[in-house]
Amino acid sequence: MLNVGDTAPDFELTSDTGGKVRLADFAGKRVVLYFYPKAGTPGCTKQACALRDIHPDIEEKDIVVIGISPDRPEALARFRAKYDLPFVLLSDPDHAVAAAYGAWGGRKLYRRSLMGILRTHVAIDADGKVMQYRLKVKPRSTAELAKSLAEG
């Protein structure tokens, strides 16, 4: 798990367009990373659409939004197109980046315990340090936290 003030782990993942994206590509900008379990599911759709709806407000403050899930890039491209998402989605199929950010762990689904993505919000400052870290957020909380970052 990360703490506020920690250096955010760098990564390189495949995007919804098939290109490679690294956190280092956004050096000098604030970044909101959000981890979600599966594109197209109700909670993940609420989370992405809430971020889409406030995106103009946070983009105006030069904040970049990046969504990360274990979905394949093709599934991410369909999800992004279907909901007109204005930010990049990244594929983390082996959960390595999620694990580095504390977003991979035990969770309950329909009374069963299993390993999976823990819905997580991470805000990173322009110097690569963690500014906000919330584990197991509710779907709309990421947008609320991102908006507070833009306002603060």
Largest sheet descriptor:
7 strands, mixed
Number of helices: 4
Oligomer, anyone? Answer: single chain
CATH homologous superfamily heading: Glutaredoxin
Descriptive tags:
152 residues; alpha+beta; Glutaredoxin; seven-stranded mixed β-sheet; two-stranded antiparallel sheet; 4 helices; 9 strands
Report on this model:
This protein has 152 residues and is of the alpha+beta class. The chain has one domain: 3-Layer(aba) Sandwich (Glutaredoxin). Helix content is 29%, strand content 31%. The protein has helices at 42-59, 73-82, 96-100, 141-151, and strands spanning 12-15, 20-22, 30-35, 63-69, 88-91, 104-109, 112-117, 120-124, 130-135. Strands 2-1-5-4-3-8-9 form a 7-stranded mixed beta sheet, with helices on one face. It has a two-stranded antiparallel ribbon with strand order 6-7. Helix 1 (42-59) packs parallel to helix 4. The mean pLDDT is 94.
